[in-house]
């Protein structure tokens, strides 16, 4: 039988699972918040589904469950750094976001660099944390090598997510968050399980030839979205959020993990901008001008990104989050067995 929980109750359940599995309060709390945000916003692929992957990564010894991230604040710089100490990215971000916002307001722009972290879940919760502070944001990170560059034949780039947010007074921010691959690796796995062929243009096989067979794609490589354009953006992310911040690139991540079944370890780059500072001395209010643009888009019948998430969020806040009987059983099992629930 399905069960409906409040956002707070689900947060408590998920945090209990992580605490019983050996994560400290800092790590467990931050991971629980982002997982529950996924369920709250009906993003099932980033909700409780992700708990097992986090536990599997802990069990494999590839992430530090006791990590206490450290803020390395260079006072004279617009660059704020957080050493995640081998833990998950989420608590490191939570530690650094206020310093990032303060420096962006003072200087017009600032960067938060997170090093030595295990990336977990989507980027939009981090983007929204910045827009909640009245700032625009860009967030990016590499992954592990599962994507071939356009014209290439072997995995080299990651799915390399990229997110942007713009604050809106009195309403939900304008946010997009997407991988730079044509499809997520999980989508290929779902096609395999369902016995379905892939759409053309999603993947190549181990010999570099186009394929619509999921099995061949999983042993080959995914492709970037938009051909050479997506390939170039993905390469930019490797450069900015890997090499420039002194952290791992996607091929190095795969070498470190030896598998794509664990959460990837690398760095993350968050950029924050003050629209008021950039527009100072120029005519017009940047926020009012942005609203005019959004209204023009919606006026043509187009949907702004994240609108479905926001609608689902409103329902969850009012009526709670409904989980299926199987999902409740999964939570029970994870809480009872902890790390013993994963191979």
From TrEMBL:
Q: Which InterPro entries match?
A: Mal/L-sulf/L-lact_DH-like_ah, Mal/L-sulf/L-lact_DH-like_NADP, Mal/L-sulfo/L-lacto_DH-like_sf, Malate/L-lactate_DH-like
Reading the lineage from the top rank, the first entry is Bacteria
Determine if Cytoplasm is one of this entry's keywords: no
Q: Which UniProt keywords apply?
A: Oxidoreductase
- Which PANTHER family does the entry mention? MALATE DEHYDROGENASE, OXIDOREDUCTASE-RELATED
| Family (UniProt) | Belongs to the LDH2/MDH2 oxidoreductase family.
Q: What is this protein called?
A: LDH2 family malate/lactate/ureidoglycolate dehydrogenase
What species does this protein belong to?
Pararhizobium capsulatum DSM 1112
